[in-house]
């Protein structure tokens, strides 16, 4: 299986989505905006972003890294 | 004015009847063969697949354990849930789920054990995977019944005793699972998922209105539990949050009822849509459910020992009928995970243990019949166990502890399975050794109390502040790779079945 640069970009994007699902830079921050902590608003935005990124993946990059062609031939 | 208990019971009963009716409807469309019974003939579309997987993931934890945790330790669990179910699980949905779907469609697999057993040419491996899975499934189903019994007893103020509540749920569940198989389960899951989602948002609206808005509640939280607004602290250390998110997300993929969902999509398009919608679904359900628990702390709601925060909060802020609806929602959550677990558990029992080891020549019709008996037997045994469990268990964190142990147990399977799916060098001996090592090490940590040896604490909760479940997963990785490297491929192994070339 050969991997090209775009594969690595997707791996990096997924890794970033995982890594910042918890906003570590807001650790111990207790600022409240509109009744909810800022870190909770981050969560709302981040989940929405993840959905958009995943949608992009399904449109342009699905089947990457999965050996689908090999599987068919095999 | 109708008596409150009668009204509550009527709402729950009405809900159960609707679920049963849907099961009956699905029954009329169900063929009698095993593939249709377990996998609805691999014909599931996006909405049903999304909801049935989603509802299956939800359990007593969403309505009871989770809000209890948010009430006692703060709402950071929302972030753990988002990282875990919204993102890590979604990625695994592609990496493991889509690959399993491709492989399963190619070779007609129904269970995980069947898939691995075929790839490595080993009936023993198939049996091992089934036994390990069933060992963890049992306490988890039991936990759902405990939750159902407690919820009904709490709702009726004890008029319906614990055992009767658990029995009622069990009987209804067995009825529609036995009748209609996965199609019935998936349809009721969709109803249950929509119902839960609706009810939890109405609850949020109601509590917010009655309590004067989120700002007011945040102000009182700032004085009553200032720790809750700050990210982290207390129970929530970075190590703990990461370990929970990773272990549970990896564990979820190997839960029989979730893993089997990987085989049932009608097309790749269905898997794609579900994948992209996943984080949003997680957001919509868990944020409100856990916020309610947190708000209860700010509003000074008292929770009697041994009961749950969500009913306590709703009793204070909403009318009786609405609190009853929410308990019905919780009932829906428990049933939707248990029904799928029963069905998948029974498929592991019949396809991976009964058929290969007891009756190799069993006809398809006979297998379908054994599967249904298996559902009833499994449910009865967990029900009996739940009666004993309930006697000794009054602690609030009980649900969380039991649930976490099962997730960790399944998480020990994930890495060997990933290796089998993608690394042609995996050998039969390697995967058997890896699965066994992970399970033995993990079970030792769960069951044996810690000991001091050579200046280190062994079998404690953590090593170097990281959860033992993670270390056991690493052990499984090391053993699978190490033993695979050291042993030769056995006769009958065929990596090409998974589309990977053998080394």
From TrEMBL, chain A:
Keyword annotations from UniProtKB, A to Z: Membrane, Transmembrane, Transmembrane helix
Origin superkingdom: Archaea
Transmembrane keyword on record: yes
Membrane-spanning ranges: 7-27, 39-58
Protein name listed in UniProt: DUF3311 domain-containing protein
Organism: Candidatus Halobonum tyrrellensis G22
Automatic annotation (TrEMBL), chain B:
InterPro entries linked: Na/Glc_symporter_sf, Na/solute_symporter, Sodium:Solute_Symporter
Keywords, sorted A to Z: Cell membrane, Ion transport, Membrane, Sodium, Sodium transport, Symport, Transmembrane, Transmembrane helix, Transport
Membrane topology term: Multi-pass membrane protein
Subcellular location: Cell membrane
GO BP annotation list: sodium ion transport
Cellular component GO terms, alphabetical: plasma membrane
MF GO annotations: symporter activity
Membrane-spanning residues: 6-27, 47-65, 77-96, 123-142, 162-182, 194-218, 238-255, 275-297, 317-335, 369-390, 396-423, 430-448, 468-488
Family membership noted in the UniProt record: Belongs to the sodium:solute symporter (SSF) (TC 2.A.21) family.
Protein name as catalogued: Sodium/pantothenate symporter
Lineage, broadest ranks: Archaea, Methanobacteriati, Methanobacteriota, Stenosarchaea group, Halobacteria
